[in-house]
Design brief:
The protein has about 325 residues and is α+β, with helices and mostly antiparallel strands. Helices cover about 30% and strands about 25% of the residues.
Length: about 325
C-alpha cells in the first residue's frame, strides 16, 4: 500500500538519522534520508494479489452470519443485498423487479437506544457491504500526523532537537500523506479498510469501548471507538481490536524496512494501538454506507533505546453505489 510505504520511509528516515548522527555524520544522514524518500520501495504483506482480489469482490454480504434473532432478507435477482436492522426488527420490503433500489431494512425505532452489541452488529453488516456492493470508493484524503509528544532518550534528544524535534517529525508525516483517489472493483478490496481483505470489520462488542448511533433525516451516524491494544511485536490483521477494522501498520512491516545500521542501534519495533475511532453514515432506507472516516492511533516503540513515537492516520471516504 502506497500510504504505508510513505509512512515507513518517514520512520526509516528518523531511525537512520538517529543512528548516523549519533556517529557524528550529519551530512551522511541528509543524503541517506533524501535517497530513501526518493527510491525506497516497501511492499505491504497485507495486499492481496489482483486475481484473488477480483474473486473476493464477488463476496455477498448475506454470507455474514447474523445473531439468532436476526433474519436478513435475500436480495432480489440483480439487486445487491443490504444491511438488516439490529435484532428484533427484521421485516424488509423487496424492491420492484428491475429497480435499482435494494431491500430496505425495517425501521428500528430510536437508534440512540440501541445497545452496544446491536450497534456493532449493524456497523459490521453495513461496512462489510462496501467491498461486495459499492460501485466506487472515493478517498478524499489520508493524513498522517504526530498524535502526541514523542519520547526520545536523553543520549540522542539533542540531536533529534537539532533536526527540528516533534515539529520536524510531524511535518514529515504530513508531507507523506495522500490526497484524493478513486477505487473500483478489486482496488476497493485492496485499499478500503481493512486493506487486502474481503471484509471491513470483524469487531465484536468486546473490541469496542463505545458504540453510538443517531438518526437524522433518514441517515444513521454510527461512531465506534475501539479498545486500546497492548504493545506487541507480533500483531496480525484481524486479531486484537484495531486490526479488526483499520488499516493498521504492523510491527513486522516496520522491522522489515528499517536498515541494519539503524536496527542495530534501536532494536526491533513493537506496536500498540491506542483507542481509535471510526465513524460512518448509512442511508436508513438502503443500508448503504455513504461516508466513512477512520482515525487510527498507532505507536511505534523501540524499547532498546527507550524511543516512543505516537502516530495517527486519518482517512476519509465517500461511497458511491
Amino acid at each position: 500500500m502506497s500510504n504505508m510505504k510513505k509512512i515507513i520511509i518517514a520512520v526509516a528516515a528518523l531511525t537512520i538519522a538517529i543512528s548516523v548522527i549519533t556517529a557524528n555524520n550529519l551530512s551522511s544522514v541528509m543524503l541517506i534520508m533524501a535517497s530513501r524518500q526518493g527510491n525506497a520501495q516497501v511492499q505491504s504483506g497485507n495486499t492481496v494479489a489482483q486475481d484473488n482480489a477480483s474473486q473476493n469482490t464477488n463476496t455477498n454480504t448475506n454470507n455474514v452470519t447474523p445473531n439468532n434473532n436476526t433474519t436478513p432478507t435475500a436480495a432480489p435477482s440483480g439487486n445487491t443485498a443490504t444491511t438488516a436492522a439490529p435484532s428484533g426488527n427484521t421485516a424488509t420490503t423487496a424492491a420492484p423487479s428491475g429497480d435499482n433500489k435494494q431491500d430496505a431494512p425495517a425501521a428500528s425505532g430510536n437508534a440512540s437506544s440501541w445497545t452496544k452489541a446491536q450497534t456493532v452488529e449493524y456497523f459490521n453488516k453495513a461496512v462489510n457491504g462496501v467491498k461486495s456492493g459499492a460501485k466506487t470508493v472515493n478517498q478524499k484524503e489520508v493524513t498522517n500526523y504526530l498524535a502526541g509528544a514523542t519520547t526520545i532518550t536523553s543520549g540522542i534528544k539533542s540531536v533529534y532537537n537539532i533536526l527540528g524535534g516533534d515539529e520536524w517529525l510531524d511535518g514529515m508525516l504530513k508531507d507523506n500523506s495522500q490526497g484524493a483517489a478513486s477505487y473500483e472493483g478489486a482496488d476497493i478490496t485492496a485499499k478500503f479498510p481493512v486493506e487486502g481483505q474481503t471484509w471491513s470489520s470483524k469487531l465484536t462488542e468486546a473490541d469496542v469501548s463505545s458504540a453510538t448511533c443517531t438518526e437524522a433525516n433518514g441517515v444513521y451516524t454510527i461512531e465506534i471507538k475501539t479498545v486500546a491494544d497492548a504493545k506487541s511485536d507480533n500483531v496480525k490483521v484481524g486479531e486484537g481490536h484495531a486490526p479488526k477494522a483499520f488499516n493498521v501498520i504492523l510491527p513486522g512491516v516496520v522491522n522489515d524496512n528499517i536498515p541494519g545500521i539503524a536496527k542495530n542501534l534501536v532494536g526491533t519495533a513493537a506496536m500498540d494501538y491506542p483507542e481509535s475511532t471510526v465513524k460512518i453514515t448509512v442511508d436508513v432506507a438502503t443500508g448503504h454506507v455513504l461516508t466513512a472516516e477512520y482515525d487510527l492511533k498507532w505507536t511505534i516503540n523501540f524499547d532498546k533505546m527507550g524511543i516512543i513515537l505516537p502516530f495517527g492516520s486519518k482517512a476519509v471516504y465517500d461511497i458511491v453505489w
